[in-house]
Every structure is written in structure tokens, then in C-alpha cells.
Amino acid sequence: MGLVLRILAAIVIIWLILIAVAIHLRRKNERRYKNADDNTNLSYYAAPTDLSRYPTDSPDYSVTHITGPYSNGFHLKPKDKLFKGMVVTFGGSDGTPSYEVAQVLAGAGFEVLALFYYGMPNQRPKLTSIPLEFYKEVETYIEEHIPKGEPVTIYGLSKGAEIGLNLITLYDSIDNAILVAPGAYNFSGLDYENYQETFSTATWKGVDLPYITTSQSGFGNFVKFMYQLATKAPVSFRPSFEAGVEEETDLESKRIKVENSHAKLLLYAGSDDQMWQSADMAETIRAARPEDTEVVIYEDAGHLLYGNRVIEAGPINIAMGGTLEANMQANQDQMAHMLERLAEWHGEI
């Protein structure tokens, strides 16, 4: 009996030590990464569905909130429009419509639609099973606001790039696509409140697109993930996406068929992306359809191509990758290159 008690006491002591170490490391990481996200000054990142947080006063362009049965977002119209057509922006899993990019484009003379695709009252509440038919509303709106035949370009970041790549295979009205940190496959959607079931990121005609699940990445990665959660060390989701691709037995059925699109493609990615393997997937996209596909890889840059390598997301810190210097240089170069290419595609009025 005494031996059993000593063993139990030893186990309790070990657990107490581990808890104390975890608490110490968590406090250390909270201090280290507090306010690490360079977007903390953009208040809408804290509450993406709060429209009042999006600045709408500008001397260079007007901003109108637009809605449809599913569509929801902002129409930014330059007071001195310099380029033909329309650019449509989609954000990533953060739930915003890449509004800061839309502002830059509108300020440069492009007419822009900055659109949500989930999270708003008339939309899917989570980033899962997004009905791609929603773009038909967008298509109709564009036809009503720009002359027929003028170019349409979509911009998508991360999960928004996954949505965008699907859209260009379904809608011939899209002439060009700019995809930042793109995915070459359909992956499972993101619903952190439902761990029992997974669904595709998007649906077509009411059916989930065939998708790769990222929920199983091996015991070692699971232990590492739990450690990161416990200590608030930066969590890298890349191993889960890499394992999902490596373990998928029918990878081709999950690949987005970019070869079915005529749209010109411009893909940007960072070699040190820690969210998912976007540089590798950009090359996968180009290999499937080399013509009219341009890929720009920024060495040592991370997922977002700007800011710090870690962002604070509520109770966890998320690893984005890259160095601050490489990310800021990538952001500067990417924006200049993108504006140059858009000017070529859209042409001056």
C-alpha cells in the first residue's frame, strides 16, 4: 500500500511540475507575442462582421455597402476611375473581405467589390460548405455596373484563394485571378466548434466538392500541437495540410481543375509559409496549366507576405512564417507588381 501511495504521489508531483512549466511558458509566450499582429490597428480584424469598423470616408473613392440573397460586401468606386472593368477581392479565414487591399486598389483608380463569403447574417456562419453559386449574384451586379466586355479580375488570399481558384473554373466571366498563398486542392472547411464532422470548404449545386481532410496528421504532430496550445507557442498548421496531401489516396479528384479555366493567373507565395505549403501548391497549379500562369515566390517570406511571422488570434498564437524583413520586402514588391499587372490587364480609360 505504501508503494502505491508513493507512486501516486510521484505522479501528482510530476503533473504539478508539468503544469507549472506550462503556465510559465504560456505567460512567457503571451508577453513575447502580445500584439504581434501588424493588423491590430485595423479594428475590423477583431470583429469582421461589424460593418461600422470598416472606414468608408475617403477623398479618392466612395464606399457603398451592398447585399443580395447571399452576397455581402462593399462597392468602392473611385471618384476619378482610371482603369476599365472591376476587381473583386476575397479575404482569408479571418473573415474580412481583404478590405485594405480593396482600398489600395480603389485609391489607384480601380473600381472594386470587397466581398465577404461567410460570416455575415445572410451567409454561411462558418467557413465551410460555401455555395459557389453565390458568384452568380456578383456576376449580375458587375454586369449592371460596368460596360459589357470590360475585364473582371478576382483577388483571393489563402482560403479566399481556394474559393477564387474554384470560381474561375465555373464562371467564364472572370478574366483574371490574383491568388496570394494559394491552395491547389479543395480542403476541409474550418469550423472550430464542430469537431465531430468535417465538410468541404465549398459546395457546387448543393454537393460538397471532393476535399482533403486535415484532421489527421500523425501522433507526433498531435502531441506538438497540444504542446503549442498549452504553452501558447506559435501553432503551425502546415504539417496538417502536408500530411493531408501526402496521405490522400485519390489526390487528383481533390485537385481544383484549373485547366478548365481561361482566366489569366498571377500567383504569389512565400517559401516559409507556415499556414500551408502555398509555394508548392502554386507550382502544382502552374504544372496543371502552364499557359497564362505566372508564379512569384518570395524567399524567406511567410503566409501573408507582410508583418511579423506570428499573429495573435485570441487564445492561441498562429505561426505565419517568414522574417519581418522578408515579409515587408515581399509586401512592397508584391503590391507594386500586382498594380502593374492589373494596369496591363484592365487598360486605362
Question: What class do helices, strands and sheet pairing give?
Answer: alpha/beta
What coarse outline follows from CA principal-axis ratios? Answer: globular
Order of helices and strands: HEEEHEEHEHEEEHHHEHEEEH
Mean pLDDT: 88
Structure description:
It contains 9 helices and 13 strands. By secondary structure, the protein is an alpha/beta fold. It is 36% helix and 18% strand. The strands form 3 sheets. Strands 1-2-4-3-6-7-10-11 form an 8-stranded mixed sheet, sandwiched between helices. Strands 5-8-9 form a 3-stranded mixed sheet, with no helix packed on it. The protein has helices at residues 2-33, 99-107, 134-145, 159-170, 219-231, 238-247, 251-254, 278-288, 324-346; strands at residues 61-67, 72-78, 86-90, 112-116, 130-131, 152-157, 176-180, 202-204, 207-208, 264-270, 293-298, 310-313, 316-319. The model has no long low-confidence stretch (mean pLDDT 88). It is globular.
Concise account of the structure shown:
The chain has 9 helices and 13 strands.
Write the layout of secondary structure elements.
Blueprint: H1 2-33, E1 61-67, E2 72-78, E3 86-90, H2 99-107, E4 112-116, E5 130-131, H3 134-145, E6 152-157, H4 159-170, E7 176-180, E8 202-204, E9 207-208, H5 219-231, H6 238-247, H7 251-254, E10 264-270, H8 278-288, E11 293-298, E12 310-313, E13 316-319, H9 324-346
Parallel strand pairs: 3-4, 3-6, 5-8, 6-7, 7-10, 10-11
Antiparallel strand pairs: 1-2, 2-4, 8-9, 12-13
